[in-house]
Amino acid sequence: MIRNGLLFQLDVVEYGDAWELQKMLFETRISDKIEDCLILLQHPPTFTFGRRYKEDNLVSNREYYERNGFAVYKTDRGGLATYHGPGQVIGYPIIRMSTYTNDYYQYLRMLEEVMIRTLSGCNITAERKEGYTGVWVNGAKIGFVGVRIACGYTIHGFSLNVNNDVSPFQFITPCGIQGVRVTSLQKLLKKNISIKEICRELADHYSDIFQVQLVSIGINAIIQRFRGGEKFCNATRDIA
Fold this sequence. Notes:
240 residues; alpha/beta; three-stranded mixed sheet; 6 helices; 12 strands; disordered C terminus
C-alpha cells in the first residue's frame, strides 16, 4: 500500500533552527494535522551529542570547538557524538513508526538501507557492521543514524557524508568508537558529487523502502497550517 508523505528539501540550515523545525513538525504530526514527512538538508559545521554522551567522546572542551567555528549541541536523540557540516546530507523523518514497523531496530535498518541503496547507485558497495548502527565502506564509516522515538513517532534521523570535509571527526570520538575511520563519497570517488542528485536518490529510495509517495512542499505552507499542538509526551525510547 502506497501512502502519501511530505518532503521538505532545504539547503544549509543552522542546527538549532532545524531542531526547532523538527519539533514543530513532530507536534503537528502527533496532533494529526499533517502527514508523515521527511526533511532533507545540510548543516553548517556542528558537533552534536546524544543522550548517552560521555565526557570522553570530546577531544577538547566546548569552548575550544566554539572558538574554532563549530556549533555544539546536546540533543535528545540516541547515540553519542557526531559531526555535521556542509556537503553532508541529513534526513529527518517525522513519522508514526508503527505505520511502517513495530520494531525499533528494524526502523534503524530501514534508514541504513536508504543510504546503502543510494551509495549503490554511485557504484559504492556499502554494508552494515555488526554491533553498530550506520553504514560502512571498506571499514570506514560513511553513514550515521541517531533517532528518538516519542509517543510512537520519530524525530532526528540519518546523515550521509557526500562532499563534506571529514577532518572535523578527529575532534570527537565518532559514535563512541575509538579509532574509527570516516570517509565520504567525494573521497571514495575522487570528485565532487551533486548534492541535488544525492537528495533525489535518497528521497527515491526512502519512498521505495517506506512505501510512501513523497510530495515536495514549502515550509511556509506548513507554518500556516500549524496551530500549536500537544507537548512532547514522556513515553520515549532512544535508539543509539
